[in-house]
UniProtKB/TrEMBL annotation:
<feature type="compositionally biased region" description="Acidic residues">
    <location>
        <begin position="297"/>
        <end position="316"/>
    </location>
</feature>
<feature type="region of interest" description="Disordered">
    <location>
        <begin position="289"/>
        <end position="321"/>
    </location>
</feature>
<feature type="domain" description="DUF6589">
    <location>
        <begin position="52"/>
        <end position="478"/>
    </location>
</feature>
<protein>
    <recommendedName>
        <fullName>DUF6589 domain-containing protein</fullName>
    </recommendedName>
</protein>
<dbReference type="Pfam" id="PF20231">
    <property type="entry name" value="DUF6589"/>
</dbReference>
<dbReference type="InterPro" id="IPR046496">
    <property type="entry name" value="DUF6589"/>
</dbReference>
Length: 573
C-alpha cells in the first residue's frame, strides 16, 4: 500500500513520513473445510516433482458437465436482464429452471473469520521484499519457527504480480534447507477481483474502437454520455456498470425481436412460462451472442479425404470462410462478439457474488483462452498455473480446500454477498488510509500498524456506538440506481441501426474494424505455443532454474479504483 502525504515539508514535520511511503498489509482468513492431515506439504511436493505439465485435451478441454454449466450460466443471464428491466415477470422469475445450477455452493450464514496483520514498511515490490515480508509476518509477528512452518501448506491468494514474485523467490531458494526457507509451503492462487479487473480491461482494449465506429464501446459510451470512460484511466466500477448497461440494452432489443409479440409489455401480459423464456434465451444466445460460423460444405466425392490431427504442433488459424462472412457485415459481427464477451463477464461476476466456485472453475479454460486472445498473457499463464496445481500437483483433498477458500463472505448474508479475498483487502486498505488521515499527516507507520491489526474491531466498535446513540454509522447497502433510460437508449439505437441483424454487403460507412474473436484466437495460440512454453517453464521450476516470463501484448492496466493501482495486495490464508 502507498500513502501520500503533503508535499510541504513544514506540514509533514521533521519526524513525519516522506511525501509517499510504501509498505505491505496482509490479512489471514480461517480456512473452511480444512483438516491438518490434508494440508501436509510433502505429498504435494512429491506430485509437483513428477509433473510433466498440462495437456490440452486432458486438462484444458472442458468435460461435458463443464460445457453444460458454461452454457447454462450464459443462458441464465439473458432472462434475468429482461426481468430486471421489464415488469410483469416477477412470478416466473423464481422458477427453478431460470436459476443457476449449483456446482459448489457457498454455505448459508457462514462468516469467514478474518485476522488482519500489522502493516509494515517492507515493500513487496521486489522478490527480496516478498521474502522479507513472509519472515516478518510468520517469524516476527507470529513468533513461529522455520521448522514448525515446514510441515503444512499455506494457501496464498494474491494478484498476478505478487504470485510472480513469490515464484521467483521459490526458484531463488530452490536448494535451501527446509520447506519454509524454500517457500514451498506457499501454494498460490489468483485473486478473483484482480481477475475481473484484468478481464474487463482486456475486453475494453479489444472492443473500445472510436466514437465513429458504430457498435464499438466508445460509440456506446458517447451514446450514454459517459465521456469519462473514454479517457486512459477509467474508473473500474463505473466501467463495469456501463458494460452491464450496454449488455442489457443489447439483450433487451434481442428480446423485442424474438419474443413474438408487438412489444415487451404485450409479451409480459401473455404470461409466458419459464420454459418459454428459457427457449427464447437459448435462441438469443445462439443467434445474437455466438460468432459467425461458415455454412457446412457439401461433400465432394472427387476431393481427397483430409484428416486433421488435433495434437498437431502447427498453429491453428480461424477458418477463412468465417472471416470472409464477417467482413460482409463487420458491425454485426462485432456486436455478436461484444455480446458474448459481456455475457461471460456478467456470468463470472455473478458466480463470485453467489460464492459458487464450481461455476467459476467451469469458466477457467475459457477464460485462459480469452486472456491469451486478448494479449493478457500473464493472466493466461496465471490461470494455467492454477489449473496445473488443481489437476496435477495438489492432492484431491487439498484442491478442495483451495476451492472452498477462494471466495469469502464477511457479512454472513451468504450467496449474493460473497467476494474474492482480494476485494476485501481493497476495502480495508481504503479504511486504513481514511483513519490514518484522520489522525493527522504526521502519523507514523507504527500507528498505522496498530490500526491495521485492529481494523476489524474498530469497525465493530463504530457500529456498536452508532447503534447505542441511534445515529447512522454508514449504509450497509446502497440503493440501486434506475438505469432503464440508459438501457432503453442503447436498445433503441441498436434497433435503429439494425446492428443485431445480418445485412449481406452492408456499406461500412463508419469504417469499422473487424474485431478479433479472442476465444478462437486464444485457443489457437494455446495449442500452438502457449502450452509448450508453460510446460517448459514448469520443468525449469522443478529443476530450480529461472525462466523468462511472457510479456503482455495489451496495454498495461490503468484503472482508477479506491486504492492506488500500485497497491499490490498479498493475501495469506
Amino acid at each position: 500500500m502507498n500513502l501520500s502525504t503533503s508535499i510541504f515539508v513544514e506540514q509533514r514535520g521533521p519526524s513525519g513520513p516522506a511525501k509517499v511511503t510504501s509498505g505491505t498489509f496482509g490479512i489471514l482468513y480461517g480456512l473452511r473445510n480444512a483438516r491438518a492431515e490434508h494440508m501436509l506439504i510433502v505429498p504435494i511436493m512429491q506430485r509437483f516433482r513428477k509433473s510433466q505439465g498440462l495437456q490440452f485435451n486432458l486438462h484444458l478441454r472442458p468435460a461435458l458437465p463443464q460445457l453444460r454449466s458454461f452454457h447454462n450460466q450464459l443462458i441464465m443471464v439473458i432472462p434475468d436482464r429482461l426481468i430486471a428491466h421489464q415488469p410483469g415477470f416477477e412470478v416466473v422469475a423464481k422458477d427453478p429452471s431460470l436459476q443457476h445450477m449449483d456446482r459448489r455452493p457457498f454455505p448459508v450464514r457462514w462468516i469467514t473469520p478474518e485476522f488482519p496483520t500489522r502493516a509494515t514498511i517492507i515493500e513487496e515490490a521486489t522478490t527480496r521484499g516478498n521474502l522479507l515480508y513472509h519472515d516478518e509476518i510468520y517469524l516476527n509477528q507470529f513468533k513461529r519457527t522455520t521448522d514448525s512452518l515446514s510441515k503444512y501448506a499455506i494457501p496464498s491468494i494474491n494478484d498476478q504480480l505478487t504470485n510472480a514474485r513469490i515464484r521467483a523467490g521459490q526458484i531463488l531458494r530452490a536448494r535451501d534447507t527446509n520447506a519454509w526457507n524454500r517457500r514451498e509451503v506457499l501454494q498460490l492462487a489468483f485473486g478473483l477481483f484482480h481477475l475481473c479487473l484484468n478481464l474487463v480491461w482486456g475486453i475494453l482494449h479489444a472492443h473500445r474502437g472510436t466514437v465513429n465506429m458504430t457498435g464499438s464501446l466508445s460509440y456506446f459510451f458517447s451514446l450514454m454520455e459517459k465521456t469519462r470512460l473514454g479517457n486512459d484511466h477509467p474508473d473500474y466500477h463505473t466501467l463495469l456498470a456501463a458494460l452491464t448497461q450496454i449488455l442489457d440494452g443489447l439483450l433487451l432489443n434481442a428480446w423485442r425481436r424474438e419474443c413474438g409479440s408487438v412489444s415487451l409489455d404485450a409479451f409480459a401480459k401473455s404470461k409466458p412460462t419459464a420454459q418459454q423464456l428459457r427457449d427464447i434465451a437459448t435462441r438469443i444466445l445462439n443467434e445474437y451472442a455466438t460468432p459467425f460460423t461458415p455454412p457446412e460444405p457439401e461433400p465432394d466425392s472427387d476431393s481427397p479425404d483430409v484428416s486433421v490431427d488435433s495434437d498437431s504442433d502447427e498453429e491453428v488459424t480461424p477458418c477463412a470462410d468465417t472471416s470472409e462472412l464477417a467482413k460482409q457485415d463487420i458491425a454485426h459481427h462485432n456486436i455478436r462478439l461484444l455480446t458474448r464477451d459481456l455475457l461471460i463477464v456478467t456470468a463470472l461476476t455473478r458466480a463470485i457474488s453467489d460464492g459458487d466456485f464450481g461455476r467459476i472453475e467451469d469458466f477457467l479454460p475459457h477464460l485462459a483462452m480469452m486472456f491469451r486472445g486478448l494479449g493478457c498473457n500473464k493472466y493466461c499463464t496465471e490461470i494455467l498455473h492454477f489449473l496445473h496445481n488443481l489437476k496435477v500437483v495438489w492432492t484431491p483433498e487439498f484442491a478442495d480446500i483451495m476451492r472452498d477458500n477462494m471466495i469469502i463472505c464477511i457479512s454472513g448474508l451468504g450467496p449474493g454477498h460473497c467476494m474474492g479475498v482480494d476485494l476485501n483487502i481493497e476495502h480495508l486498505i481504503g479504511y486504513l488510509k481514511n483513519l490514518l488521515q484522520a489522525k493527522g499527516m504526521t502519523s507514523t507507520w507504527d500507528r498505522l500498524g496498530n490500526i491495521s491489526a485492529s481494523i476489524v474491531h474498530l469497525q465493530h466498535v463504530k457500529k456498536k456506538v452508532a447503534a447505542a446513540l441511534e445515529t447512522a454509522y454508514r449504509n450497509t447497502g446502497h440503493t440501486t440506481p434506475n438505469t432503464s433510460a440508459l438501457v432503453s437508449r442503447v436498445a433503441d439505437k441498436v434497433a435503429f441501426k439494425g446492428l443485431q441483424q445480418f445485412e449481406d454487403g452492408r456499406v461500412n460507412n463508419d469504417r469499422c474494424k473487424l474485431t478479433v474473436d479472442v476465444m478462437l484466437t486464444g485457443e489457437a495460440k494455446m495449442k500452438s505455443s502457449t502450452l509448450a512454453t508453460f510446460n517448459k517453464n514448469i520443468l525449469s521450476m522443478i529443476k530450480g532454474h529461472a525462466f523468462e516470463e511472457e510479456e503482455d501484448e495489451c496495454p498495461t492496466m490503468a484503472y482508477g479504483t479506491t486504492t492506488s493501482e500500485d497497491d499490490h495486495l498479498p493475501v495469506v490464508t
